[in-house]
Amino acid sequence: MSPLDIVTLDNLAQAIPKWSPDDENHLYAVVDMGSNGIRFSITSLAPPQTRLLAPIYSSRAGISLFDALQPSSTGELLFPQSTISSVSSTLAQFKELADLHHVPPSHVMVFATEAMRRAANSAAMLTAIAEATGGLRVQILEPSVETLFGAVMGSRSGLTDVSDGALFLDLGGGSVQITWVDTSLDDYEILAARAGNSMPFGAAKLTRVFREGDVGIQTTESDKLMVSMQAAFDNLCSQFPRLQKIREAYERGEDAKVNVYMCGGGCRGYGSMLMHNDEISPYPIPTVGSYTVTGASFKKVTEMRRINDTYEGKIPGLSKRRRQQFDAISAVMEAFSTAVPNIRHVTFCKGSNRDGALMMKLPRAIRESNPWM
């Protein structure tokens, strides 16, 4: 692979060219090859509504790259040929759609994350995609860039500012990222991405452990998750004085709490379950984007598990697959609330890696502007 096939914080400016108001075409096609599914979108960055990231098209292919990984005789994780063929043909169809929308080839971006990083034959997948799409290149995000695009700027795409600081959590299929975002700091997004922690406890990965592992393995992985989440929070406290002061004040018995913003399919799934159980029922606008709960409500993990196990009807925002992963999702939420006991409010965000990548193309003045003004 060439150096730019792996997107790092150091080569970000070269890997993600900047948007210009003078561009002849402002349509962008973005593909996020996530571990739990592949998501496609076409977005308009045309002035003067650039900051709104106006959606033109959006879809999802239910191909779980993480579930597709199979161990070889040597123990390496591999994509089977059937998955490689399915993915490459699906991307070829989207490339045709992007062409029909007159998206310039230079405005088509394809990102891959945890599953592609883990696969020993990822090069075969990349080659098949390039051949099927006429040369489309896949950029593999290193964990810190995944934190930047998802937990930081993906969530941030629907917010004005977070000048008081907040924890941001992104739960995907293969990994979970946590960081602290304080928009009052210079270059806050890069600081947050570098300080963030990426842990291999995504919803798909943990679901496989809970489904296939014996009780001993399940207990070991759950313990690792708890320890990793606590270590991640400790690390953030050591790097951000404001967060450390809040923690110390809380430990002294003061009413010092932190706000939390969550994105990623796993977090939104948990938010959808909370909304289903909200005392306001039916919820007037049953979409999890911007849905906010108190820390006390968020911590009702056992109750949410019980509802998932016993409720037989359809829950808005929760697919059959997401409900099958709910034990894993709730395990991450439980580990987070144990590591961070002083949660004031949790807000669930609709932003994604795709939104975060587009945000990073924009000039800072536009990126930091209020999207509603």
Automatic annotation (TrEMBL):
It comes from Bionectria ochroleuca. PANTHER family: EXOPOLYPHOSPHATASE, RETROGRADE REGULATION PROTEIN 2. One of its GO terms (biological process) is regulation of transcription by RNA polymerase II. InterPro entries: ATPase_NBD, GppA/Ppx_hydrolase, Ppx_GppA_N. Residues 54-364 form the Ppx/GppA phosphatase N-terminal domain. The lineage of its organism: Eukaryota, Fungi, Dikarya, Ascomycota, Pezizomycotina. This is Ppx/GppA phosphatase N-terminal domain-containing protein. SUPFAM superfamilies: Actin-like ATPase domain. It holds the Pfam family Ppx-GppA. It comes from the Eukaryota.
